[in-house]
Amino acid sequence: MPMDDNAMTAALGTIRDAEDVVQLRSAVTDALSLIGIEGAYFIAPLTRDVRVKRLLTNIGLPDGWERLYREKYFLDDPLPSLSFDHGNAFCWPADIELGNLTKPQLRYLDFAADYGLARGIGVACYGPHGRAGFLGAGWPPAEAPSDAVLLAVHQIGQVSFQNYCQIMRDDLTMPVLSNRELEVLGWMCRGKTNPEMAVTLGVSRSTIDAYIRRIFSKLDVTDRTAACVRAYSLGYIVSEEVENLTERARERDEPGP
């Protein structure tokens, strides 16, 4: 079905401005219907570890699918994890390697097909503080969705998840860390021991211990692992992989002599 660009723009604005999860779900339903999608689901948080407790939002799919998904199939659904490997919206089964799936994952796809999800569009959605979610939308037509439809699903998922994060956010007060505390935190998250940090920073071991106690207190954690996880999620530090990518991009973009 042809997409009305003006209607979609207005629908995205309604998603963005929704003030609670009920309004948000209704706005997402309306936006998806503009491109012929009547059944979808949303999962958050998005992680590769399927054992992590997730919130499931059913948007127009049968109650039987939801019940069985919650009971057991959430462990076998490969689509959320596969979305990490796609920079944009992807189609299933066309864009996934079925030969790489496990038998339980293939059984889930067969199960989903019985409830209108034989074909669909999936997209990973990203929000503040390292949050991520997954939108999976059934695509009933036999023909592949157009680029406009894929982009629309991507936009719907992203805008809705951004607003969901805002609606569900706690009253988050960002702790204030000093420059030296940030420096210690960065080295700590790179696996440096306290003695190693003392040598690197030219201070005593007891000074490093004091910095770490203050960092733990400000981040409301009790160990190094929790401190690093919270530091990444709050954006205080980035991974070495991101730093390396940034450095390579800078070297590439700098003009030559």
Number of helices: 11
Mass-distribution shape: elongated
Number of strands: 5
Helix-strand pattern: HHEEHHEHEEHHHHHH
Terminal residue distance: 54 Å
Percent of residues in beta strands?
5-15%
Q: Output mean pLDDT.
A: 87
What does the radius of gyration come to?
Answer: 22 Å
State the oligomer.
single chain
Q: Which residue ranges are poorly predicted, with pLDDT under 50 across at least 5 consecutive positions?
A: none
Helix content, binned percent: 40-55%
Give an account of the 3D structure:
The protein has helices at residues 5-17, 21-33, 63-71, 79-82, 103-113, 147-168, 179-189, 194-201, 205-219, 224-234, 240-253, and strands at residues 40-44, 55-59, 90-92, 120-126, 132-138. By secondary structure, it is α+β, with helices and mostly antiparallel strands. 51% of the residues lie in helices and 11% in strands. It is built from 11 helices and 5 strands.
Features:
five-stranded antiparallel sheet, 11% strand, elongated
Q: What's the topology here?
A:
Blueprint: H1 5-17, H2 21-33, E1 40-44, E2 55-59, H3 63-71, H4 79-82, E3 90-92, H5 103-113, E4 120-126, E5 132-138, H6 147-168, H7 179-189, H8 194-201, H9 205-219, H10 224-234, H11 240-253
Antiparallel strand pairs: 1-2, 1-5, 3-4, 4-5
In short:
The protein has helices at 5-17, 21-33, 63-71, 79-82, 103-113, 147-168, 179-189, 194-201, 205-219, 224-234, 240-253; strands spanning 40-44, 55-59, 90-92, 120-126, 132-138. It has 257 residues and is an alpha+beta fold.
